[in-house]
Amino acid sequence: MAGEAQPDCLFCKIAAGEIPATVVRETDTTLAFRDINPQAPTHVLVIPRVHYPNAAELAAGDPGAAADVLREAGEVAAREKVDGSGYRIVFNTGSGAGQTVFHAHAHVLGGRDLQRLV
Ligand code: 5GP
Ligand code: ZN
User: The whole model's pTM is what?
Assistant: First the structure.
């Protein structure tokens, strides 16, 4: 069912503590941990503990958890001290946009000059 942990999902396993990660912050509904292949000095992933395949489906199925992910992205930016200089929140959606892990997650990127994308 939507929202339930998926046995083959990497981020469900990280959320369950079955695969280690460098955790930055956690709440009842979210987990924030460092990306294994960082693209900026700060590169943290914020995931909901519930499983949805992407951010839009998370927002449709569990709006509270989607809001929690966004709020936590801001908390991570403040904790990493990139909120003053500016940071980017990215939700890759679909393989054509670079999504490789199909458990909703926000990338929080900062600590270097981030070129304008759009
Ligand atoms: P996506 O490409 O789906 O938007 O983002 C998935 C991210 O997960 C990638 O940036 C990738 O580096 C990261 N990633 C993949 N496997 C692991 C892992 O085992 N641990 C951590 N911490 N990050 C991972
Ligand atoms: Zn999952």
Answer: 0.98
Tens-digit pLDDT profile for residues 45-60: 999 999 999 999 999 9
Ligand 1 centroid to Cα of residue 90, in Å, is 13
Calpha distance 83→76 (Å, rounded): 9
Please confirm, yes or no, whether 43 is among the known catalytic residues.
no
Report residue 72 as tokens.
């936590």
pLDDT-wise least confident of 58-62, 65-69, 87-91, 113-117: 113-117
- Which residues does ligand 1 sit against, CB inside 6 Å? 10, 21, 33-37, 45, 92, 98-101
Give the domains, in start order, of the chain with CATH numbers.
Answer: 10-110 (3.30.428.10)
Q: List the 23-26 sheet strands across, edge first.
A: 23-26, 30-34, 42-48, 106-110, 87-90
